[in-house]
Amino acid sequence: MARVLVLGAGFAGLWAAIGAARTREEFGARAAGVEILVVDRNAYHNIRVRNYEVDLSEAAIPLAELLDPIGVHHMVGEVQAIDPAKQQVIVATRGGRQTLDYDRLVLTLGSELVRPAIPGLAANSFDVDTYAAALRLDAHLAGLGKQAASDGRSTVVIVGAGFTGIEVASEMPGKLDRAGVTGDRRIILIDPNPVVGATIGEPARPVITEALSALGVEMRLDVKVDEVDANGITLSSGEFIPTRTVVWCAGMRASPLAATLPVERDSLGRLHVDSYMRARGLTNVFAAGDVASGVVDGVHCTVMSCQFARPMGRFAGHNVMADLLGEPMLPLDIDWYVTVLDLGAWGALHTVGWDRKLHTTGAAAKATKQTINHKRIYPPRTGRADLLAAAAPIIQAPPDVRS
After folding, report:
1. What is the pLDDT confidence band of residue 185, given thresholds at 50, 70 and 90?
2. DSSP secondary structure letters along 243-310
3. CA distances from 259 to 52, 82, 250, 266 (A)
4. Which tens digit of pLDDT belongs to each residue from 213-271?
5. How far apart are CA 147 and CA 195, in angstroms?
6. Where do the structural domains in the chain lie, given as residue ranges?
7. 272, 292, 306, 379 - which has most CB atoms within 10 Å?
8. Class of the 3-112+252-339 domain?
């Protein structure tokens, strides 16, 4: 039996697996014997872009619910090594190490938070990079809500004023409300750049600044973190901020397993892929999502986001099965780009195009953001046929308030 092995069940991996299952069914009897196996460290698919939100109750979906009905096998394990020459992957599971052979590999291990060697950072900080980490932060805040007032109890410091940091800071008032953290609350956003949202673009920054100000978020810009301890954070400016809660949101990098493969990578550690999602320089290996970099419109490269991970996964899933069976593959071409940034109770920011022209702000943009986070990026949970249909290798239209 031929095997398509998918490593990772994030946005790209989940849709690669479902897409492969869809194409397997489309090809009929001659593809019926192909096994599709997904390996992930968790037994669930995390709607990762929701990890900053107040309510995480629907941010994880059991893989069994999504993959069992379509005949896709799945295994909980930690990928330890990939040998493209032998076409084998080493996986650590509760039962011990296993060697998995593959005929085609889809690498969708995603990205992870970059944690520099700052004294005390690892031991004294939180993040929302994973579902488990987001739950840990919420549990910590809930614990603070049950404690008496103390120095730094009601102060939250978020490091990194990019997309994730801004969304965490914007949602933090709601998180503190839910946790019962009262008193003289402070939310402080720190970044080494002289402006908030340095990569977001000039047209959007005044909107972000207005929203953060309205939400009572303080800013410390053009400073770095020197040290973090259990009682607070020390900045390069010399300022010490008493706090029990430091949330690290500064920087992402592709899965370190990509660095073990004998090919070139970009500055974020991503594998280069062609328009069919084939990893350049590797045989029988496809890659998609945050671990892969490809040109989507003849000019621009993919961004680490579910906006690109989902279609990359769908096309990788179709193409890996087509390649295995000697059928024509389909090139990925995405001719639009949007940014929809959540700004908490203030609303949201919606930009269009690579130059990020303002489209809508406030309540109108918030409606779009909620549609994306709560509907658009979710796999259908209405049955097998709808799930397979949603994995068709096509490009969705850009989101708007009516989508």
Report:
1. very high
2. -SEEEE---EEE-GGGGGSSS-B-TTSPEEB-TT-BBTT-SSEEE-GGGEE-BSSSSPBP-SSHHHHH
3. 28, 11, 21, 10
4. 999 999 999 999 999 999 999 999 999 999 999 999 999 999 999 999 999 999 999 99
5. 35
6. 3-112+252-339, 115-248
7. 292
8. alpha beta
Spatial distance between the Cα atoms of 396 and 343, rounded to a whole number of angstroms: 25
Single pTM value for the model: 0.95
Residue from 142, 111, 381 nearest 251 by CA: 111
Alpha carbon distance 369, 402 (integer Å): 11
The per-residue pLDDT for range 67-111, each reduced to its tens digit, is: 999 999 999 999 999 999 999 999 999 999 999 999 999 999 999
CA dihedral 34, 37, 38, 43 (to 10 degrees): 130
What's the angle, vertex CA 310, arms to CA 305 and CA 315, rounded to 5? Answer: 130
What is the C-alpha to C-alpha distance for residues 196 and 371, in angstroms, rounded to an integer?
26
**Domain 115-248: which topology?**
FAD/NAD(P)-binding domain (3.50.50)
Sheet of 240-242, strands arranged across: 225-229, 232-235, 240-242
Return d(Cα 357, Cα 204) in angstroms, integer. Answer: 8
CB 285 within 8 A of CB 319: no
Rounded to 5 degrees, φ, ψ at 281 are 90, 0
DSSP state string for 75-137? EE-EEEEEETTTTEEEEEETTEEEEEE-SEEEE---EEE-----TTTTTS-B--SSHHHHHHH
Q: Which residues pair with 242 in a beta bridge?
A: 232
Q: How many angstroms separate the Cα of 223 from the Cα of each of 4, 14, 230, 238, 349?
A: 47, 39, 20, 10, 26
